[in-house]
Amino acid sequence: MAGTKTEKIRQQELRQPDSFQKVGAEARDWLIQRQKLIGIAVAVVIIGGIGVAIASEVSKRGEAKAAQALGQAFAVLDRPVEGVQPAQPGDTDPAFKNLKERDEALVKALTDFRAAHSGTRSATTAALSLGEAHFRLGQFGEAQTAFGEFLKGAAQNDPLRAGALEGQGYAFEAEKKYDDALKAFEQMDAAGGGEFLPGMGAYHKGRMLILQGKKEEAAGVLSKVSTDHPNTAAARLSSERLAVLASAGVKVPAPAVPAQPGQPAAVTDK
To answer: Cα 178 to chain center, whole Å?
Structure first.
């Protein structure tokens, strides 16, 4: 009986989401807010220069207007939420009854904003927050679409791409579309992500392989994360997953020895 109970706990640990979902969402929210503020300033001077053509001037004004409107759409997040975010002195807007109600208002505000300012960089940025809100509401198909819209419109070097791919992967995972989730997560490391997401693509790939029953392959992927991305959240989370796999009898390969500068990486015994 005890052995059966322990095995059930191990299987639950391998399949459950982890706290990084919350951390990743907070990191993306911080990046979105920063990009919003930067976008408001940059939009004022974008496409400027000597001999600006009329079309460029119109485009510049459109971007500036969109950036301002995006700030207004995000004002939904400043409204208080009963029992979660208390009202502040001077607040005039009524409090939301719960976070679900606030997310519903955010979805409407961002959807309306994107319809009114389609084709602008701010509309692309808004798609990422829209995807997050849809995901929190359990609207996974809509979340996948919104994340895809962001990825289609964002620059290839945009640091938010990794967050969008992660969100897209979570949305596919929620519907148990593990192959699609794996494809999204595999693109994360190549997309970058700055200080928040290094190694998370490989970590999520390992999780998907576990969910697909490919535990030995998952162990091989996860064991490399600490070597490739030491002292990161991905390394810590990978180590925790490896410990659960090992306790379940899965053979975990020894971590590779990091190569010294100018030397090839050491090859571990298989």
So the answer is: 17
DSSP state of 158: -
Distances (CA, A) of 185 to 118, 136, 192: 27, 19, 12
CA angle (236 as vertex; 235, 238 as ends), nearest 5: 65
Arithmetic mean of pLDDT, 49-64: 53
Distance CA 160, CA 77 (A): 20
Which two tokens mark 202? 């490989």
Q: Quick check: helix, strand or coil at residue 96? A: strand
List, in sequence order, the alpha helices (H) in the chain: 2-15, 20-45, 54-73, 99-116, 121-136, 140-153, 161-174, 178-186, 188-191, 200-211, 215-228, 233-247
Is residue 191 within 8 A of residue 219, CB to CB? The reply is: no
Closest CA to 237 of 20, 12, 47: 20
- The pLDDT tens digits of the residues spanning 182-220 come to 999 999 888 755 556 788 999 999 999 999 999 999 999
